[in-house]
Design brief:
Oligomer: single chain
Radius of gyration: 25 Å
Number of helices: 1
């Protein structure tokens, strides 16, 4: 949003203007300088995620899963000369399914934040921080008695981000190198995995069983609270060429991340694949992308964007998006 705000400001338009942009997983739009110089903006994104890990025994050693993540943000900001100040409200919904135990993981996150930016002719500095809360709901099938185990908990969230970027122009070409730092911390409350309220009645006449007409209760599982965090440093650049009505560009970045490793029990099966007995612990990745912004006449503009994220041990990603704007 910050880049869009400065672009709208530099356009010199005195009347209200709509701006659009596309990300790898969605689109965003803004209504600039609506009331008293205030601008309103929103974005929406959706991602489909799938872990296609191969496995030997579906009941014992699979981490295979699939799911979706949907997000939206609503914000308001105002420019004071070279300074931009804004407020943002965001929501994230995730819905995952695990294969081996017919499990589900659903999480809804709501955050509230502020951001501040300052831009000179060459340098731009962005800062932001926020807090929020989350509700987490899980289900899984008890592989012993085939009943459903339900869990529910809450979490507190804090995040910060900072970025420094510079713009260098040389003829038709523009180079924008940047460095960014992001942190996220989630404090998950302890909860109980609630097993079905049922009893197992053991009957017999004593000849076949050591007990007779006894009832064994089902014990719930106590899940400890946990704090997880992630810190990411990104260094990258965007190189674009202004060819009149067409502006192609390339976009790349190197990310170094320190994230709390996932915690789960060691697999029960022994298939000789050591990587399946522990959580992946990746340190860096590379994102390489390219795009094309265009203008057809004075009323139609748009853009296309695609890229790929590689280098991680746990997943890789390919993305593609586009947008078109028609004005009268």
């Amino acid at each position: 949003r910050i880049d869009m705000a400065y672009m709208a400001q530099n356009s010199g338009a005195s009347a209200t203007g709509l701006t659009f942009s596309s990300q790898g997983d969605g689109v965003s739009m803004a209504a600039n300088k609506i009331i008293g110089g205030l601008s309103f903006w929103a974005d929406y994104g959706n991602s489909d995620i799938e872990n296609t890990q191969t496995f030997t025994n579906v009941r014992l050693d699979s981490m295979k899963y699939d799911g979706t993540a949907t997000s939206y943000s609503l914000g308001i900001d105002k420019a004071f000369g070279k300074t931009l100040v804004g407020l943002v409200v965001s929501n994230l919904d995730t819905d995952f399914k695990t294969t081996f135990n017919d499990g589900t993981y659903k999480q809804e996150v709501d955050t509230y934040g502020v951001y501040l930016a300052y831009k000179t002719g060459v340098l731009q500095i962005d800062l932001g921080t926020g807090t929020g809360d989350s509700e987490i709901t899980t289900t899984r099938r008890d592989l012993g008695n085939d009943s459903v185990i339900n869990g529910k908990t809450t979490a507190d969230i804090e995040y910060t981000h900072a970025r420094v970027a510079a713009t260098f122009n040389r003829g038709r070409f523009t180079l924008v190198p940047s460095a960014a730092y992001r942190t996220l911390e989630i404090d998950i409350a302890a909860f109980t995995d609630d097993r079905a309220d049922e009893t197992l009645t053991i009957t017999g006449d004593g000849a076949l069983f050591s007990t007779s007409n006894d009832t064994t209760g089902v014990t719930d599982d106590a899940i400890s609270g946990r704090t997880v965090s992630s810190e990411t440093i990104s260094i990258g650049a965007v190189l674009s060429a202004n060819l009149g009505k067409v502006v192609p560009y390339v976009d790349f970045s190197y990310d170094s991340e320190d994230t709390t490793a996932a915690a789960y029990k060691v697999e029960l099966g022994a298939d000789g694949t050591a990587n399946e007995t522990k959580a992946s612990d990746y340190n860096n990745s590379m994102r390489i992308g390219a795009g094309l912004n265009f203008m057809l006449g004075s009323h139609i503009s748009g853009g296309l964007r695609a890229g790929r994220i590689t280098g991680r041990e746990d997943w890789e990603e390919s993305y593609m998006s586009g947008n078109i704007s028609i004005g009268f």
